[in-house]
Input
Amino acid sequence: MKRSFGSDNHSGVHPQIMDALVQANAGFVPAYGEDPYTQEVEQLFKQAFGSDATVFFSFNGTGANVLCLRALTQSYHAILCADTAHIHVDECGAPEFFTGCKLIAIHTPDGKLTPELVKKELKGFGFQHHAQPKVISISQATEFGTLYTPTEIAALATLAHQHNMYLHVDGSRLANASAATGISFKSYTTDTGVDALSFGGTKNGMLLGEAVVLLRPELAQNFLYIRKQGMQLFSKSRFIAAQYIAYFKYQLWKETATHANQMAAYLASSLTNIPEVTITHPVQCNAVFAVIPRVVCDRLLEKHLFYVWDESICQVRWMCSFSTTKEDVDVFVSDLKTLIADHRTQPD
Output
């Protein structure tokens, strides 16, 4: 089996998560979130994000993002995001399809929106011919693996609220951001003025299930119906809840995310003296982006799994997960160095 640096979704389920699922499998409990597991995890989310936080489970990350945005918008609204955002690039138009909103993608050099970039698209308010800006959506960590500071997030939240808008965070890798910086979930979200959050676990050791976290009570009032209409209500909710109990209660999120981040740092450090490899973005969590020779890339893909991010310059993305080992990295780097050495000896 090939070693994978393609996605943190390629890893399996953490043993503690699997144990939690097995333990939750005993006996009978009510369905649709009325079980004691879900009730317990609701309190854990409040501890992590603040007493006003309300959590709702979904099957997957696209479902969490779409439902989150649906709770914040009407169909005549616009959602502003980075042009690399998952909701823009990798969700098959689901946000537009299910919300009816227009997505406005803003180019960024590093995946991070700034107030200056966003302000250019804050126009047409009250003009019936224009989609009305309503949500700024950011990813933490970004799709480039870069991180917002709390100050940067707070500036975007302030800008949004000044225009009667909301700030949404795609937090599929929020655990990696918090593990990398030591900054709590609450400090990254509730305390900075974030209104709604899609919170992930499957990229960090869980089997399935993501969470919509609404940080303003009024946003949660009708969400039960939005989720049901959105086909994301899981009858056996205890199996998502049990994973999050293990995830929070024993700080498993921190252990797994820290390891993934450390493996990415180790990978990046192992590449520093290879002239043919150019790391293109700061390695701040569990992603390494680099430009490598195309012929080397093609041959490396025969041995390992990873994605080519930008075909035009042969920029690749290498992701590490909780199950990535130093041996995996060493073998990968050794194969890369061998292919580069072969490439050097080939005539142009």
Remarks:
- The chain has 14 helices and 13 strands.
- The first strand starts at residue 3 and ends at 4.
- Residues 109 and 281 are 9 Å apart (CA to CA).
